[in-house]
Structures are given as structure tokens and as C-alpha cells.
Write a structure and sequence with these properties.
Layout lengths: L1 H20 L1 H10 L5 H16 L4 H8 L11 H21 L5 H16 L20 H36 L4 H4 L2 H44 L27 H16 L3 H10 L5 H20 L6 H16 L6 H32 L1
Helix pairs in contact: 1-5, 1-9, 1-10, 2-3, 2-9, 2-11, 2-12, 2-13, 3-9, 3-10, 4-9, 5-6, 5-14, 6-14, 7-12, 7-13, 9-10, 9-12, 12-13
């Protein structure tokens, strides 16, 4: 039982780090445009992350049962601990370097590497594709394809939205009687400053809806495995909430207490801030005004909320970053600092393989030691 409790504790540590690591995703633009102070933005992100964490469990179900082949390898507590530790290490490294990498992909890469190592290098321990590429489960349809398509969608949507907003303002400015009211930058900044609070809130909800569910899935998976292995048979009545039974139709429900604890931990981590990454996203990549922040946040929130509804664990980081690039490109392509973008893209590319290797090595070492 103690090792199961360790899984839960480490999963919550990952959730807390995810919170402050990915705080920048929902508040970098609203801080950069000076619509909210850093303190106000962090509180907004924490509150909206908390709300989003309770909205559905589709992503949690994907993490718990849609990536690792239970018919080939048992999802043991040792495997989960190694996967979580690898993801935590990578998150801390990228946070220290100020690189907005993906906590989602760090966790998925770690699960894959740990599963392959624990199965004795059997790659069938991972569900690569189950069903069609677009509608099935597995790492390729649920992770690899969205890893490319979701940032591309964020870039395109933000580019189109930003272009449409520029065209709309130009149209108003050219109409008699509207030029003074709509043509002034102070009015535009005021209007979209207010609108950006709404878009930043939507971004916070999207982040909570996608990222907090990943830890829910890990915790539920560990408890379900312990329940199936009869590790909880002799628990006192007051600890009976730890048991999770599988549904007859397959899979298992996420208990309310798991949702509550994961959501609160994510919110606490968010409240801790993540200023290194905020600096990269909000200040270094492209100069932002409220209208730009509104377009970027709206676009990325739309993509992430859609993915969450289908149980796809997309990267909040990738989508926000791509949306900011799209907004910058709509202004002009040379407004983007491409050297910063290059560093970010390398972090995106390296996350899956590095975390997989880290988790693989941790499993090998743990077997030698224990």
C-alpha cells in the first residue's frame, strides 16, 4: 500500500509543477499587455484552472487506458513512479532554462519509455494505433498527430482572427463618424483589454480541463491496479475510498476526491507562478498589445477545449506559443524573434524522446537496486 501512496504523492508533485510550469500558458499574454498585474493574472489562472479541472474526464481516460497495452504489461506502481519522476525532471530542467516545453508530452513520453523498459523491450506494451488514425486510441492518433496538427491549427486560427480584427478596425476607421471612436489606439487597447480578461479566463479553463486530468488518470490508474491486485482488501472502513473498481463496460470512473485533490494541487501550483517561462512567451517572442493577446488566447483556448472534449492530451504550451506566432505573423513575419522560436521548437522536438529515455533508464536502475 505504501508504494501506491507514493505514486499518488509523486503524481500530485507532478501536478503542482505542471501548475507553475504552465502558468505562463494562460497568463503570459495578459501580463505582457499589462491588462493585469502578475499577481492578478496568477489568481485568475488559478481560479480558472480549478474550474476547468472539473469539466469532464475524457483526457484522464486516455492517459489511464488509451496509451499502455494492459494485455502485454501490468501498469505497476514502480512503472508509474519512474514515469512521473522522468516527467518531473524534464519539467524542472525546461522551467529553469525558461523553455515553454510540454508537460503533456513529457508525461506521455515517460509512460512510453517506462512501459517499454518494464516489458523487457517489448514495443507492443504501448498502444501505438488502435482503430483508425483519426478516431482510434494510442500514442500516434492521440499524441503524435495532435502534436503537429493542434499547434498548426492554433497558428492558422490566430493568424486569420488577427487579420480579421485588423480588417474590421480598418473598416470602422474609414467610415464617417467612426474614425475618432474606433481609430484611436487608446480605445482599441481599452476594449480588447477588457475582452482579454475573458479570453485569458477561457485559456485558464482550457488548461485545467486538459492538464489536470492527466494526473487524475495516473492516480486513478494506480488505485485501480492496487484494487485489482487485492492490495486494499484489509483497509479499514474509513480508507475504503481508495478502492477503485473497473466498470463492466471497461475502464473505470475517476472518483470525485481524485478530481478535487488534482484540481486544488494544479491551482496551488499555478498560484506559485512561473515567471521564467512567462518572460519567454510574453516578452521575448513578439511584442504584444491587448488585441494581439485576445486573438492568441481565444485561438489557443478554442483548440484546447475541442481537443479536451475528444480526450486528446494536447500541449497547452505548444498551442499558446503557436497562436502567439500566428498573431505576430499577421502583423508581419519579421516581428517574430525567430531565434527564440527556434529554441522552443527544439524543446518541443526533444521532449518525447528525452523523457522516454529518462523513464527507461529509471526503470532499469530501479530493477537493479530493488
Amino acid at each position: 500500500m505504501s508504494i501506491v501512496i507514493a505514486v499518488v504523492a509523486i503524481a500530485l508533485v507532478f501536478t503542482y509543477i505542471n501548475g507553475f510550469h504552465d502558468t505562463a500558458n494562460s497568463i503570459a499574454t495578459v501580463v505582457a499587455t499589462k491588462v493585469l498585474t502578475p499577481g492578478q493574472a496568477v489568481l485568475l489562472a488559478a481560479a480558472t484552472n480549478l474550474i476547468g479541472a472539473f469539466m469532464g474526464t475524457a483526457v484522464a481516460a486516455t492517459i489511464a487506458s488509451g496509451l499502455i497495452n494492459a494485455g502485454v504489461i501490468e501498469m505497476s506502481s514502480q512503472l508509474l513512479i519512474c514515469a512521473l519522476l522522468a516527467a518531473i525532471v524534464w519539467n524542472l530542467i525546461t522551467w529553469w532554462l525558461g523553455l515553454p516545453s510540454s508537460s503533456s508530452h513529457a508525461l506521455v513520453g515517460s509512460l512510453v519509455g517506462a512501459a517499454v523498459a518494464a516489458s523487457g523491450n517489448n514495443f507492443d506494451s504501448v498502444i501505438w494505433v488502435e482503430g483508425s488514425l483519426l478516431k482510434g486510441h494510442g500514442v500516434i492518433p492521440k499524441v503524435i498527430i495532435p502534436m503537429v496538427l493542434s499547434p498548426a491549427a492554433g497558428f492558422v486560427i490566430s493568424f486569420i482572427l488577427m487579420g480579421a480584427l485588423y480588417a474590421l478596425l480598418a473598416w470602422f476607421a474609414n467610415r464617417r463618424g467612426w474614425s475618432r471612436r474606433f481609430g484611436r489606439t487608446p480605445f482599441v487597447n481599452f476594449f480588447f483589454g477588457k475582452a482579454q480578461i475573458v479570453s485569458a479566463s477561457a485559456m485558464g479553463v482550457a488548461h485545467g480541463m486538459n492538464d489536470a486530468q492527466k494526473s487524475m488518470g495516473i492516480i486513478a490508474l494506480a488505485l485501480a491496479g492496487a484494487t485489482a491486485a487485492h492490495q486494499f482488501d484489509h483497509l479499514p472502513v474509513w480508507l475504503g475510498f481508495l478502492r477503485i473498481a473497473e466498470n463492466p463496460a471497461g475502464g473505470f470512473a475517476i472518483p470525485v476526491w481524485v478530481k478535487v485533490v488534482s484540481a486544488l494541487t494544479m491551482a496551488a501550483g499555478t498560484a506559485g507562478g512561473g515567471w521564467r517561462i512567462i518572460k519567454t512567451l510574453g516578452h521575448k517572442m513578439v511584442k504584444l498589445h491587448p488585441i494581439n493577446g485576445f486573438a492568441a488566447e481565444t485561438s489557443s483556448a478554442l483548440v484546447i477545449l475541442t481537443a479536451s472534449a475528444f480526450g486528446i492530451p494536447v500541449s497547452t504550451t505548444h498551442n499558446v506559443s503557436a497562436s502567439i506566432m500566428g498573431v505576430g505573423a499577421a502583423k508581419r513575419f519579421n516581428s517574430i524573434r525567430w531565434s527564440v522560436v527556434e529554441r522552443m521548437v527544439w524543446a518541443w522536438i526533444l521532449t518525447l524522446p528525452i523523457t522516454a529515455l529518462l523513464a527507461y533508464g529509471l526503470v532499469v536502475v530501479s530493477r537493479l537496486v530493488f
